[in-house]
Design goal:
Length: 322
């Protein structure tokens, strides 16, 4: 089963790291991953005297409203938005936030250009057909309409500041480091590193209860996790799921490597799935998350991890659309 078709609601409560005395807070607005609609990714909000830096903006109105309510509660504007990647559960709220804070600059990788010509263009065509289908429920159409509107609004998906390598964003008298992982979960993933606070916002380079391979280059992703593991950090915020310690992340990385190694060999598919659930077991919190891992990996192993043609497609720049 595909991303967004199964899942558990994770809620929109405001959580955050405990700051040192006198420091600005770092807030997590958890994403939602319900069974009956598309998900929202986690949002991480950094703050300094100027305002708020919002990492990922979610898909649904409720998620965006939680971000805006937090900004109002802090009495500060949103001065920058960072999209870790172009998936709409992480970028779909850009327009809504910039409608309120039009001066917020968008930082993201240039992978969005290829996505708009290919993956998102196909999504737009499918959305048009689905919205015209009288057999589709209004509830499903409402969810699809959000994606349709986000893709149609290209201006708020395109970067003001492209992340083409390590990019420094002024923050609290120092800088946040925006680092590029090419050909990983997407063609270009941005992860955010605060070396002083020892915090990483990883986007979908880390996802629980399992990695989403829909647009991923597995070998490039493996390399990106190795780079992150060598960074000095204490807390990592994943694209979906709860914050991880460095030790938790290292466990995730080892389970990821074992999954790719298993899928590259001749072991039965179920053995690879069982290996992921066993290896990442301490990070998988419920029977429902184990079922998610089973359902998704049953698809991903056949359709991506053991499909050499598909991997070649995902690990190379897309051709320009006519």
């Amino acid at each position: 089963m595909r991303k967004g078709l199964v899942g558990a609601f994770l809620g929109l409560a405001l959580l955050g790291a405990t700051p040192a005395p006198g420091a600005f807070p770092i807030k997590l607005i958890p994403g939602a991953f319900p069974a009956d609609r598309q998900p929202d990714g986690n949002t991480i909000i950094f703050e300094d005297a100027r305002g708020l830096i919002v990492v990922d903006t979610g898909r649904h109105k409720e998620h965006q409203q939680a971000i805006l309510e937090y900004a109002r509660a802090r009495h500060k504007p949103i001065v920058a938005i960072v999209n870790t990647h172009w998936h709409l559960d992480h970028s779909g709220g850009n327009q809504e936030l910039r409608a309120v804070y039009p001066n917020a600059k968008l930082y993201t990788s240039e992978a969005i250009y290829g996505a708009l010509d290919h993956f998102l263009a196909h999504s737009l065509d499918n959305a048009r057909k689905t919205l015209a289908d009288p057999s589709v429920s209004e509830a499903d159409k409402a969810d699809i309409r959000l994606g349709y509107e986000a893709i149609s609004d290209r201006r708020d998906l395109l970067p003001d500041v492209p992340v083409t390598g390590t990019t420094r964003l002024p923050y609290a008298g120092r800088t946040l480091e925006l680092r590029l992982a090419p050909f990983a979960a997407t063609e270009g993933d941005t992860w955010v590193y605060d070396p002083k606070a020892r915090i990483i916002a990883a986007g979908d380079l880390v996802v629980l209860p399992l990695p989403f391979f829909d647009t991923a280059c597995p070998d490039g992703w493996r390399h990106a996790l190795d780079v992150i593991d060598r960074a000095d950090f204490a807390i990592l915020y994943p694209g979906h799921g709860q914050p991880l310690s460095h030790a938790d992340f290292h466990l995730y990385r080892l389970a990821f490597d074992d999954l790719l190694d298993c899928a590259a060999g001749s072991a039965p598919k179920q053995a690879c799935i069982d290996g992921w659930i066993r290896g990442a077991g301490p990070l998988i919190k419920s029977a429902q998350e184990r079922r998610q891992s089973q359902d998704y990996l049953d698809y991903y192993i056949d359709k991506i991890l053991r499909d050499r043609a598909k991997q070649a497609e995902l690990c190379a720049p897309p051709t320009k659309a006519d």
